[in-house]
Amino acid sequence: MSAILETDGLVKEFGGLTATDHVNLSIEQGELLSLIGPNGAGKSTLINLITRMLEETEGDIRFEGESIVDLEPHEVVQRGIGKSFQTASIFPDLSVEENANIASLGAEHGSFRFNFLTHRNSYPEVEKRTLSMLDAVGLRDQRDVRAADLPYGDKRRLEIGIALASEPSLLLMDEPTAGMSPEETQATVQLIKDLQEDLDLTILLVEHDMEIVFSISDRIAVLNRGSIIAEGPPAEVQGDPSVQEAYLGGVEL
Ligand SMILES: Nc1ncnc2c1ncn2[C@@H]1O[C@H](COP(=O)(O)OP(=O)(O)OP(=O)(O)O)[C@@H](O)[C@H]1O
């Protein structure tokens, strides 16, 4: 395996507060890495640095071997880093298929770096992308449903589908099961596993639910006060005394 994403001595300071403290994180091609840590540990800050929503104070981030710190957020998406966050925008009055089409169209436009002329106005390509994206998240049968009328779990699946439209090789997911029923949670965990395998996706997951984290992850990185205090396969991280300590009074691991 080789690293698809690496952070190198990454630092982010907010005034006097160091939210990211010399983080060296490496995500291997094809793996599902979960980022965990107590509230305020710096998980969102690290994700926002990777997506370039935040400017680092120091350090570097490399994706597929190349530095991305000089890129704009939309350029990072075009490079192949997708994100599925709770804030992702669905157009509630449009159908599932229309939402998917908009995401696919945006992705097609973004892909002119590959082959601008053949992709220009290529509707069949958009349609193909839309259908494969709806298939990937299991929403093909609901394609005529108004997005606002979808059950909550399916809305979140549509958001994941929208993130897949740009055909990312690395997908960042922030609490994909937040607010879901146990059944929806189970289905979404299965979906994430399937996406990892079927699309050969690398996934960086931020998740508070430890049951999910320990069942789904290939590796776990634990952040505390901006630093990575433990990193490894679930069984290793679970038994790590410094992790227990960081969570003391919080979640039982
Ligand atoms: N824009 C900002 N300005 C100032 N301080 C910030 C900003 N964003 C985050 N912080 C601080 O940086 C630290 C890390 O916050 P961050 O949101 O990254 O943690 P987190 O691990 O995602 O927490 P949670 O699990 O609660 O979402 C916190 O102390 C937070 O108050």
From TrEMBL:
Listed under GO cellular component are: plasma membrane
Q: What role does it play?
A: Probable component of a branched-chain amino-acid transport system.
Query: Where does the record place the ABC transporter domain?
Result: 5-250
- Gene Ontology molecular function, alphabetical: ATP binding; ATP hydrolysis activity
Signal peptide, first to last residue: none
For this entry, the protein name equals Probable branched-chain amino acid transport ATP-binding protein LivG
**What family name appears in the similarity comment?**
Belongs to the ABC transporter superfamily.
Enumerate the SUPFAM superfamilies for this protein.
P-loop containing nucleoside triphosphate hydrolases (SSF52540)
For this protein, the parts annotated as crossing the membrane are none
InterPro entries noted in UniProt: AAA+_ATPase, ABC_AA/LPS_Transport, ABC_transporter-like_ATP-bd, BCA_ABC_TP_C, P-loop_NTPase
- Pfam families in the record, alphabetically? ABC_tran, BCA_ABC_TP_C
Gene Ontology biological process terms from the UniProt entry: amino acid transport
Q: Which UniProt keywords apply?
A: Amino-acid transport, ATP-binding, Nucleotide-binding, Transport
Gene3D superfamilies per record: P-loop containing nucleotide triphosphate hydrolases
